[in-house]
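Hi C.,

You asked whether I'd gotten around to modeling the 430-residue construct. I have! Everything is below, sequence then structure, no commentary in between.
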Amino acid sequence: MKLLFRNPTFCKLFIATFASQLGSVVGNMAFAYYLVDRFSTRPSLATTAELMYSLPTLAVFWIVGVVADRFDRKRIAVSSDWIRAGLTLLLLLFIHFDAIIACFAILFLRSAISKFFGPAEMGLLQGSIAQDHYVQASGLNQMMMSMFMLFGMSLGAAVYHFAGIEGAVLIDAASFLISGLLLAWGNFTEAARLPNGRHRLKALRLPLLLKDFGHGLSYIAQNRLLLALIGGFFFFGIVNGVFAVLPIFAMRYKLSPDNYMVHSSLITVFLGIGFLLGSVIGPPLIARFSRTTVLIAGLFVTGLLIGGLGVASRIEIYYVLVLIAGTVIAPNNIILGSWMPELVPPQNMGRVNAMIEPVMMLGHSLALGVVALAFPAWISVSGLHYLLALCTATVAFLYLVTLRPLVRKLAIQSAAEPSDIPLPQHEHGL
């Protein structure tokens, strides 16, 4: 891990990503508190704001990966940060005039622009570090997400309390400016920035976008191991969707009806601590054993722990099991995050990475839909835990049967033939 931070390019990229995420967490949480505080009689506004963060995924996921593969990834990431900074300042103006509809429009646009950052950042990261550092880099990213999970809600509340919504939004804008400046100062190689060479912006027409998007889907479909791993992101979307409401339901309808808000918030803290611990032990664990072994064993253990949550009759036991579950899940996230850059060549990284969020969102939405329809009429709180545990165990069993043969087959194929589908090379130019 020390070697990673001796790489100045990686340091700038990591700090830029941290700054961008920090601003988003503070700004989004503070805006949620502002809506609840300023429009206390209209709680639907907070839900609408959440939709403004998630719906843009469906609008732009098919184009962001194509753009990241065809154009300068550094310029895309920097432009994403600076455009979001400008939109955030515009948001501050609309907040001042209580123009809530305009605020939602800005949130939608800002979220849509942010979707271009991820694939470009992943491509820059892939081209800036050695392949044997992917696990450590993914572990650091998991640790960063754990810290935001632990302190994001309280940090947003603290900034809103002491600086108000205006101060929180200014912090949000400043974070995007800092991230953009760090990326602009980063010394990224041309191979990392332009893995497919230079392309003219005027050549970016709808037929070409659809053709490139189809190439990305074709590449994923032909790589069965990659397809299985992306299916894993669908599963994590299901887990995230259920756990978005399950702790509240468990406390409200089973373990602590009178103090469910306090205890459901503490569950997030224990889960974040578990993720942080798992982020620390994950890389050496993966180095000691194989990725497939850690992933499959982790899924089986996670299934048992989720089943245990359904059986738990005391809050203390629930907390302990959640902490252990977070510790077990974190290495699985590291495995999925670090395996992708090894399997996907730089020419296709943008389009493949852009498919992850919509796949997770699909699993998230389906899970919430099932919970909304089935609970509590057809299934109890414990039943939700058991259903999720069964889903986890099923995925673990499927990986046990299929993953090792796919890894061996891919190793044999990669030694004999190229593994990528080249990007179409027409429309080149300066």
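If it helps when you're writing up: Confidence is low (pLDDT under 50) at residues 419-430.

Thanks,
B.
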